[in-house]
């Protein structure tokens, strides 16, 4: 169970799965949507999610080849949970930052 949670709850996995939920998405679109991810990290995470059965990679025989990623039914089921988690994080980001500042200000540092 822990291994599965590590894969689907990773920093980049959540962003990729949420971005791919709106239909087939290309690599460059994912790169633009998932802020801060490098090409290498995106590639590694896409392979991991495909291997885990959460993404389907479709290669269209065009020149240049067109590659799209979409969620599997299993990942579509997961999407609702991830959307709730992302929404919660967005709603409470400011309060968490303030709590950290308050905590850091209250902690007495040894000299």
Order of helices and strands, N to C? Answer: HHEHHEEH
The helical percent reads 55-70%
What is the fold named in CATH at topology level? Arc Repressor Mutant, subunit A
Counting helices, strands and paired strands, the structural category is alpha+beta
Please tell me the total number of domains. 1
Chain-averaged pLDDT: 90
> Outline, from the CA principal axes?
elongated
Annotation field: number of helices? 5
Proportion of residues in extended strands: 5-15%
SSE inventory with pairings:
Elements: H1 2-8, H2 11-20, E1 25-26, H3 27-33, H4 39-51, E2 55-60, E3 66-71, H5 73-106
Antiparallel strand pairs: 1-3, 2-3
Walk me through this protein's architecture.
The protein has 111 residues and is an alpha+beta fold. It has one domain (2-106): Orthogonal Bundle (Arc Repressor Mutant, subunit A). It is built from 5 helices and 3 strands, in the order ααβααββα. Strand 2 and strand 3 form a beta hairpin. The chain starts with a helix and ends in a 5-residue tail after the last helix.
């Amino acid at each position: 169970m822990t291994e599965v949670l590590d894969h689907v709850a990773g920093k980049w996995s959540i962003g990729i799965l949420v971005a791919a939920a709106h239909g087939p998405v290309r690599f460059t679109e994912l790169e633009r949507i998932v802020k801060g991810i490098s090409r290498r990290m995106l590639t590694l995470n896409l392979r991991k999610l495909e291997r885990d059965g959460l993404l389907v990679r479709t290669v269209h025989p065009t020149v240049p080849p067109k590659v799209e990623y979409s969620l599997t039914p299993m990942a579509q089921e997961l999407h609702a949970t991830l959307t709730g988690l992302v929404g919660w994080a967005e709603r409470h980001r400011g309060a968490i930052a303030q709590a950290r500042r308050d905590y850091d200000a209250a902690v007495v540092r040894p000299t």
